[in-house]
Amino acid sequence: MQTRAFRMNLNPGQAEEYRLRHDQLWPELAQALRDAGVVDYRIFLDEASNALFAVMTHEDVHGLDQLPGSALMQRWWQHMQDIMPSHPDASPISVDLVPVFSLTPG
């Protein structure tokens, strides 16, 4: 298993809409993430800065690199583009976070 974390941002005033859209996550997108090897995916919001912090755990062998090219992911990005900073292809602007500490069972 591998865990990665990354930061995205919301446009001001869009926290509730972001939460609503994820509460209504398309079942086919959830399945595509699982099929790509995602076993846990959590997103946290810093309400003071509108920063989103995502933590994703996935299988060592995964298909995450194929998701951005899928029509489904393109649709999701377009669906989210109006509430968060995005690239011209509609993908959210994100920054990978560097791990600095881990406490795991041992």
Automatic annotation (TrEMBL):
Species of origin: Pseudomonas karstica
Entry EC number(s): 5.1.3.32
A single GO cellular-component term on record: cytoplasm
Subcellular location: Cytoplasm
Subunit structure: Homodimer.
Family classification: Belongs to the rhamnose mutarotase family.
Signal peptide: none
Keyword list, A-Z: Carbohydrate metabolism, Cytoplasm, Isomerase, Rhamnose metabolism
Enzymatic class: isomerase
Primary residence: cytoplasm
Residues where substrate binds: Y18, Y41, W76, W77
Function (record text): Involved in the anomeric conversion of L-rhamnose.
Active site annotation, chain numbering: H22 (proton donor)
Database matches in HAMAP family: L_rham_rotase (MF_01663)
InterPro entries, per the entry: Dimeric_a/b-barrel, L-rhamnose_mutarotase, Rham/fucose_mutarotase
Catalytic reactions of this protein: alpha-L-rhamnose = beta-L-rhamnose
Single Gene Ontology BP annotation: rhamnose catabolic process
Domain of life of the source: Bacteria
The protein, known as: L-rhamnose mutarotase
